Amino acid sequence: MRSSVMPMPHSGSARPPSSVAVSASGLRKSYGDKTVLDGIDLRIPAGTVFALLGPNGAGKTTTVQILSTLVAADGGQALVAGHDVATSPDGVRAAIGVTGQFAALDDLLTAEENLLLMADLLRLGKREARARTRELLQRFDIADVAHKRAATFSGGMRRRLDIAMTLVGDPQVIFLDEPTTGLDPRSRRTMWEMVRSLVAGGTTVFLTTQYLEEADQLADRIAVLDGGRIVAEGTADELKARIPGSHVRLRFADSTAYERAAAAFPGAARDDENLVLRVAGDGGLDALRALLGRLDAAGVRAADLSVHTPDLDDVFLALTGHGTARATDTGTTDAMNTGTTATADTTGTSGPSRAQENLR
Ligand SMILES: Nc1ncnc2c1ncn2[C@@H]1O[C@H](COP(=O)(O)OP(=O)(O)OP(=O)(O)O)[C@@H](O)[C@H]1O
Ligand SMILES: [Mg+2]
C-alpha cells in the first residue's frame, strides 16, 4: 500500500487568513439530568488544527454534533464559518464536512459509488462529480480498489474512504471525530499526513481524540474536556509547561553510593527508601554529560539513569486528577510512548506510572 497523500489545490473560494473558523461561547447540553456540556467556549482560527481531547464520555462527540448542527445545544452560541448553528444551520452545513466516529459508508456500494452518491447528494454536476471522485480516489490511495465494495475494506481503508466522502463538497471546516481510533500505527501516520495536507490547503480541522500523542503531533491548539468543561486550553507546549518539569532519575545500588551522590547534588529530591535521586534538568545531551561528570568527580556510579520528560499524559492527569482511558490500554503503546527523550531503564517510563511519578 502506498501511503503518499498529495496536497490538493482547493477548488472552493479563497479563505481569508486570520479569520475565525469556529467560535462558541457558553455551550450547554444535558441529556435528562446528566449535564454533558457545562458551558464550553471555543475560538479556532481558520486554517489551523484544533484538537478536543478527553476520555470516553467527556462530551467530544456531543460538541461535534452541536457544531455540525446534528444536535441542538440547550444554551450558548456557536458560529461555524460565520454562520450561527442555531439560526443558519444550512449555511453551516454548506461550509463543513463531518466524519463521524463510526464510518458512514454504504457497504453494498463500491468506493467510487460511495463518492458519486455523496456528490449527487451535494448536487454536483455529473462532470464535476466524476472529476472530484477521481481526484479523491487518487489522493486517498484507494484508486486501486475503486470498484470494490466498501464491505471488503479494512478499517484503515474505510477511514480513508470516509474522509474522502467528507471532502467531496470541498468544505472550509472539517470535523473528524476520533479519526484514528482503531487504526494501526502506520494507518494512523497516513491519517496524520492527510490532516496536515488538508490544513496546508487552507482547511480548518476540528478533531477529537483520546490520543494525547495525536493532539501533540497535529494540533495548533488543544483543549482538554473533562466533566463537561474545558479544563485547559493552549498549545501542546503551553499545556506541558503547566506541570512539573523534566528531571533525571538516578538509582544507586547501595546506600554509600547514594549518600555520596546526594552530597554531590544537594538540590536533588531524595527517595531514601529506593536509593533514588531526582535531579531537575531537561535531560539533553549537555546536561547529561555534566551530570555524569559530576557523579564521576564524586567517585560514584549510578545503577541506572532515566530521563523523564512531561508529556500530555502527565498534563491530563495533573489537570483532571485521572488518566486518559487510553493510557492504560497496552495496545496503544505506539501512540503513547514517545515523550521520553532518553531512558536507561524501561520501568515507569510510559503512561500513567510515569505521569504519577512526575506529580509525586
Ligand atoms: N443521545 C443521547 N442520549 C442520552 N445521552 C447521551 C446521548 N448522547 C450522548 N450522551 C451521553 O453524553 C455523554 C457524552 O457523550 P459523548 O458521546 O459526547 O462523549 P465522547 O467524549 O464522544 O466519548 P467517546 O470517547 O466514548 O466517544 C455520555 O455520558 C453519553 O452517554
Ligand atoms: Mg465520541
Topology:
Blueprint (H helix, E strand, L loop, with lengths): L19 E12 L2 E12 L3 E5 L6 H8 L7 E6 L2 E2 L4 H7 E4 L11 H11 L4 H14 L15 H12 L6 E5 L7 H16 L3 E6 L2 H7 L2 E6 L2 E6 L1 H5 L6 E5 L3 H10 L4 E3 L4 E5 L4 H14 L5 E5 L3 H9 L12 H4 L14 H9 L1
Parallel strand pairs: 3-8, 3-9, 6-7, 7-8
Antiparallel strand pairs: 1-2, 1-4, 4-5, 9-10, 11-13, 11-14, 12-13
Structure description:
With 360 residues, the protein is of the alpha/beta class. It has 13 helices and 14 strands. Strands 6-7-8-3-9-10 form a six-stranded mixed β-sheet, with helices on both faces. A four-stranded antiparallel β-sheet has the order 2-1-4-5, covered by helices on one side. The site of magnesium ion has 4 residues, from helix 1. Adenosine-5'-triphosphate (ATP) is lined by residues 31, 36, 54, 56-62, 101, 210.
What is the tally of beta strands? 14
Helix content: 25-40%
Rounded average pLDDT: 82
Structural class label: alpha/beta
Distance between the termini: 45 Å
Number of helices: 13
Cofactors and ligands: adenosine-5'-triphosphate, magnesium ion
- Shape type: elongated
Query: Please, what is the oligomeric state?
Result: single chain
Strand content: 15-25%
Strand order of the largest sheet: 6-7-8-3-9-10
Rg estimate, integer Å: 24 Å
Low-confidence stretches: 1-17, 325-360
Q: Could you give the order of the helices and strands? A: EEEHEEHEHHHEHEHEEHEHEEHEHHH
Largest beta sheet, briefly? 6 strands, mixed
Describe the structure in brief:
The protein is built from 13 helices and 14 strands. It has 360 residues and is α/β, with parallel strands linked by helices. Helix 11 crosses helix 13.
